[in-house]
Amino acid sequence: MTPDPTPRLDAQMAFLREADRLKSVTRATRLADNTRFENSAEHSWQVALFALTLADQAPEGCDLARVITMLLLHDLVEIDAGDAPVFGDHDAAALAAAEAAAASRIFGLLPPDQAAQFRAIWDEFEANETPEARFAKSLDRAVPPFLNIANGGGSWIDYNVAWPRFETQIGARIARGAPQLWAWLAPRARAVFDRLAGTRR
Amino acid sequence: MTPDPTPRLDAQMAFLREADRLKSVTRATRLADNTRFENSAEHSWQVALFALTLADQAPEGCDLARVITMLLLHDLVEIDAGDAPVFGDHDAAALAAAEAAAASRIFGLLPPDQAAQFRAIWDEFEANETPEARFAKSLDRAVPPFLNIANGGGSWIDYNVAWPRFETQIGARIARGAPQLWAWLAPRARAVFDRLAGTRR
């Protein structure tokens, strides 16, 4: 009835089967309505939707399709390495090594040409040097504050983060690749931090 | 400290805020590991990842970036209209009307040029006529069987679906835009149906 599946398609489907596990990686950020923590699969969709919607903020000549490809792939390594909350304590070198090993294993499920292609896109994202990677990284950093503004503080409360740390550690990274978006987020984030500081006092 | 946000960015962010609700739309399909039902946001990521991974099955000349854009946007209407399980009973005309109204409201949150652009992409997906829409639609139809094969039956059990109905109603639609993928899925789906039929006997 049906022809034999090709080894190429077998490999692609094995990769897609493994990728399904990203739905079970929980992040430190809650939904905008504060009902639960989000997972890395729905986050990957959301940040790709940010890229699509905020395309007019991409730098001149930036390949938006490549940005979106990066964002669809960027968190797959968390299937093995887990999500490292940005305000948590972790050994950066150990995390980078775990993520690189995860990239080798997970992209390695694909046919060799695609494994190399997806790995190169992931490496480019991590290196954060091309215009595409810088825009993608800044959007990735912008989504949690966007959600925290909506849900009233979220991970900023959980990790006891104050405005100066947020502005230095996160704001600067968002501003690097998406300055307009940071300009929009900053006063709204600041208002939440001010309200939280008032509550704590 | 920061410049005033532009009305354009305000509108884009209002759209993105509303889009977050797609994470709370539950589908009839379970994760591959059968631990829970999936939601429409993570599904949207998954089907975009299918398009990226199975790009070599796209028809000649197909614009893959447009396929992925379609898939990132295709389920947003479910925020208002809900997810209508493919094997469930629903009034097709009423559902189409509810989804069109949802598209008007949700895409209407965007700046007018973008609202028109995203709506046109959604309309193209729904019309299922261009090569991009046909490929996107076939992938969208293929993901639930892919998950049901992994989780041992899933929505086929819940909706008491037998092989002939699945082959006619779903298989034909997958085969239309992604015949190779259908050739891969068909024997694997059939094996699950045969096992379920044995259990029911």
Please write the string of helix (H) and strand (E) elements of chain A.
HEEHHHHHHHHH
* Overall outline of chain A: globular
What strand order characterises the main sheet of chain A?
Answer: 1-2
CATH fold title of chain A: Hypothetical protein af1432
Report on the biggest sheet of chain A: 2 strands, antiparallel
Q: Which regions of chain A are unreliable across 5 or more consecutive residues at pLDDT < 50?
A: none
CATH superfamily of chain A: Hypothetical protein af1432
Description:
- Two copies of one chain form a homodimer.
- By secondary structure, chain A is mainly α.
- Chain A has one domain: Hypothetical protein af1432 (Orthogonal Bundle), CATH 1.10.3210.10.
- In chain A, strands 1-2 form a two-stranded antiparallel ribbon.
- In chain A, helix 7 runs parallel beside helix 10.
- The longest helix of chain A has 22 residues.
- Chains A and B meet through helix 1, helix 2, helix 3, helix 7 and helix 10 of A and helix 1, helix 2, helix 3, helix 7 and helix 10 of B.
What structural keywords apply?
homodimer, 201 residues, mainly alpha, Hypothetical protein af1432, two-stranded antiparallel ribbon, 10 helices
Write the layout of secondary structure elements.
The structure is a homodimer of 201-residue chains.
Chain A: H1 7-19, E1 26-30, E2 37-39, H2 40-53, H3 64-73, H4 78-81, H5 92-107, H6 112-127, H7 131-151, H8 154-158, H9 163-177, H10 179-200
Antiparallel strand pairs in A: 1-2
Helix pairs in contact in A: 2-3, 2-7, 3-6, 3-7, 6-7, 7-9, 7-10, 9-10
